[in-house]
Amino acid sequence: MVTLDNLTVSYRQHPALHHISGRFQAGSLTAVIGPNGSGKSTLLKSIMGLVKRSGGRIQVQAARQRIAFLPQVSELERSFPIQVQDVVLLGGWGTLGAWGGVDDALLTRAQAAIQSVGLQGFETRLVGTLSSGQFQRVLFARLMLQDADLILLDEPFTALDSRTTAALLALIHQWHAQGRTVVAVLHDDAQVQTHFEQTVLLARELVAWGPTARVLTQPNLQRARALAEAWDDQAELCHVDETAA
Fold first, then answer.
1. Angle ∠(155,45,220) on CA atoms, nearest 5
2. Could you read off the pLDDT of 14-53 as tens digits, one per residue?
3. CA 209 to chain CA mean position, Å
4. Phi, psi (5° rounding) for residue 77?
5. What is the pLDDT of residues 167-203, one digit of tens each?
6. Are 38 and 155 spatial neighbours (Cβ–Cβ below 8 Å)?
7. Selection from 74-78, 106-110, 172-176 with the highest mean pLDDT
8. pTM (two decimals)
């Protein structure tokens, strides 16, 4: 579904991702982990085309409208006066377009999605009045309407209670069972071991990529920590191929 070939992304002329190569297979369920600042969010944004590459290539075997991206909740504006049902309906934007109307079929799908995340009765609530867990459930319902082949989730369980996390993990497993490709940035190693079959371990460079049991080893985790401790943002710039960006 996604192939990375020598991907390098730089901020302030220093690499946030350093020569990353690998492949997310179609239908795979993959966790992306690593120390803070290791390039995990940058990796997802690179796949989405939201940050400029300094070098390397990304090949995505899915049309743009078939990709869904959930950024970190801290990056989303919740003060805009919009109702829960309207946020969920935004997931149909790819099929409706700018001038399309909401028909009965889409409205039925939105109501089913809201019910599936346990928010029936919240349809007319303003999103600014929701708890963090309720708001994240709304965003997952919107993802359901997008009906994407590739789903990218950036720290989807941050600050959520265990009940909400379990409910959203169940949705992720449902998407995986449907053959969708899911990539999620996570911090909880135990959660990764239990729920994700593949793992990418980053520390700006690639430490390990493969089956979770083979990636989450003490030597790999220690190497990631050592690389993080050795980061020097004042170091000489890495040579990258600007023609590939």
1. 60
2. 778 999 999 999 999 999 999 998 999 999 999 999 998 9
3. 17
4. -90, 120
5. 999 999 999 999 999 999 999 999 999 999 999 999 9
6. no
7. 172-176
8. 0.88
Strand arrangement, sheet containing 205-211: 67-70, 150-154, 181-185, 29-33, 198-203, 205-211
**Residue 227 contacts residue 203 (beta carbons within 8 Å):** yes
Q: Rounded to 10 degrees, what is the CA torsion of 42, 44, 49, 55?
A: 50
Q: Say what the alpha-carbon torsion angle 221, 223, 224, 228 is, to the nearest 10 degrees.
A: 140
- Tokens 């960006």 belong to which residue? 245
Whether the Cβ atoms of residue 240 and residue 57 lie closer than 8 Å to each other: no
Residues 6 or more apart whose CB falls under 8 angstroms from that of 53 comprise 7, 8, 9, 46, 244, 245
Overall size of the chain counted in residues? 245
One-letter identity of residue 88: V
